[in-house]
Design a protein that fits this description.
Layout (H helix, E strand, L loop, with lengths): L3 E4 L12 H5 L16 E4 L3 H12 L4 E5 L22 H9 L1 H24 L18 H27 L4 H21 L5 H13 L1 H31 L6 H30 L4 H21 L3 H19 L1 H12 L1
Parallel strand pairs: 1-3, 2-3
């Protein structure tokens, strides 16, 4: 993995005011950029952040160039203690107060991930930099600072106990873990096989109600259709034609004729609707069994996993998350144990 590093030397002299790292490591010289080039990314400055960014980009096969006006690590990167840590003074108490414990935890995990990444890079490339794990201490000689230190310790001690409880309850026993996995997988499979859909139950219940009452519906629709019948429509039609003959004599006859026409057309529409309703109620036994079987499946799942389909599907998502957690519990527990250290 090659990162092109071009440093423009301007001839600054190393003095005793510089850091130990700069004094004791003259570094390598790189050619001056003397022509136009095309690249994916240009990074200005060869400090730790810039070089790490270039390293990560190069892993993605991005052509990357770093330019520097002085020497590698000459700025703030060359004037640090060389300490890599996730403990930065009393910052966790401040983060917890301002943003909550969850944000403080995320900040800690991000720092731990960064520390691990550096450690992995050192090991992978066999970098001779005296990398070693050492204890970290925070102390104070200021009385006013002591209470803050105690609060920081309290925060970390509480988190330490949280981790202990989580590790204890985190399926530590292999048999218990497998038993829990088998149960959750069975439940998830049962829900997934049902292929539930939002709104499905209400549609099925409406259909089932129609099927159960199909005989009653058909009988009463037939009676209503017969009561209206063609004779009723014809009689109203005759009445309209009779009134039309005298409509020009008095306005009230014309208005009555208009009203009767509205009734005539309305009854015609109702008669047509009743015929359509009768044709729609033709259900077969197979459809009835399919609807009832589907409702039984949903009722069975409701007894086990939720009051409605929405709750059942939500529970399925929770199961899937827990299965994933259990399957990766060893990795998760190791992460907790590292934090506990």
């Amino acid at each position: 993995m090659k990162i092109d590093l071009i440093i423009k030397n301007i001839g600054k002299l190393v003095t005793m005011e510089n850091s130990f790292w700069i004094i004791n490591n003259q570094g390598e010289s790189y050619p001056t950029l003397d022509k136009d080039i095309e690249i994916d990314y240009l990074i200005v400055g060869a400090g730790l952040t810039s070089l790490h960014t270039a390293y990560m980009l190069s892993k993605e096969n991005k052509q990357t160039i770093v330019i520097e006006s002085d020497k590698v690590g000459y700025g703030s990167s060359g004037r640090n203690t060389g300490k890599i840590t996730s403990s930065h003074g009393l910052i966790y108490e401040n983060i917890s107060k301002k943003y909550g414990k969850e944000k403080a935890r995320l900040y800690y995990e991000a720092n731990e991930d960064g520390l691990k990444l550096i450690k992995d890079i050192v090991k992978k490339y066999d970098i001779d930099c005296n990398f070693e794990n050492l204890p970290n201490y925070i102390f104070t000689e200021d009385e006013d600072y002591l209470n803050q230190l105690k609060n920081e310790y309290k925060e970390k001690y509480q988190r330490y106990n949280e981790i202990r409880r989580e590790l204890k309850n985190n399926y530590g026993d292999e048999k218990e873990k497998q038993r829990k996995l088998d149960l959750l997988r069975y439940q998830l499979n049962e829900i997934q096989e049902a292929r539930l859909k939002d709104g499905e139950e209400s549609e099925l219940e409406e259909r089932s109600k129609l099927i159960r009452n199909s005989e009653k519906i058909a009988k009463n629709l037939s009676e209503a259709e017969m009561a209206i019948g063609e004779n009723t429509i014809d009689l109203i039609g005759n009445a309209i034609r009779a009134l039309e003959k005298i409509g020009n004599i008095d306005r009230k006859y014309e208005e009555t004729t208009t009203s009767l026409k509205d009734i005539y057309y309305g009854i015609q529409e109702i008669s047509s609707n009743l015929s359509g309703y009768l044709s729609d109620i033709e259900f077969d036994e197979q459809e009835r069994e399919e609807v009832e079987t589907r409702l039984d499946i949903i009722d069975n799942l409701k007894r086990k996993y939720g009051n409605n389909i929405e709750e059942i599907l939500k529970y399925a998502d929770e199961i899937a998350d827990e299965i994933k957690k259990i399957e990766n519990v060893d990795e998760y527990n190791n992460k907790l144990k590292n934090e506990q250290k």
